[in-house]
Amino acid sequence: MIDSRSPNHFYETLFQIVEQKAAVKFDPETLTAIIGFEVGGPIALRTAAQNKICVTSELAMYPEQMISAEGLQRYELMTDGHFELDIARTLLTAVGAMSLSTTLGDGHTIDVSAVTDGEGPSTVVLSLYAKIEFEGSSYGIYRLSPAT
User: Measuring CA to CA, how many Å separate 53 from each of 21, 72, 91?
Assistant: First the structure.
């Protein structure tokens, strides 16, 4: 697990992978809310807004998160280019909450119609975007895309 003294280093490593793979630079600020994810608010995000890329930036810190179907100890979620920020945040918050009680993985489809109310896709599919080893454990990022 991530040592409580090293979350910044973990996230720097994870976000560098996305920046390199997607050829983008993240905006300097993390998007957070007054009411945090842990008490029902929206999840914190790092964004490359002009490229419509959003990556969650807190899920891997929750010990409640279920190990993924691919055996990743912890993971974050992302969208890239498919959704406007408000829809991306809604989807990432909902699927992020699911990850605390449900095993998710590559190729899984999720009905999100209850949270999008016709403003976004009714179903998304997860794909493993990146995988890293950090402090002896496997971590990764799953991408949400509209199911076709």
Answer: 12, 22, 13
Q: Tally Cβ neighbours within 10 Å of residue 98.
A: 16
Give the distance from CA 114 to its chain's centroid: 19
Q: Is 107 in contact with 126 (CB distance < 8 Å)?
A: yes
The β-bridge partners of 143 are 78, 127
Whole-number Å distance between alpha carbons of 99 and 86: 20
pLDDT in tens, the chain (148 residues): 555 456 688 889 899 999 999 999 999 899 898 888 988 999 999 999 889 999 999 999 999 999 999 999 899 999 998 999 999 999 999 999 999 999 999 999 999 999 998 888 999 999 999 999 888 888 999 999 999 7
Inter-CA distances, 105 with 16, 21, 51, 113, 122, Å: 22, 20, 25, 19, 18
Report the predicted TM-score, pTM, of the whole model to 2 decimal places: 0.93
Element (H, E) at 74: strand 74-80
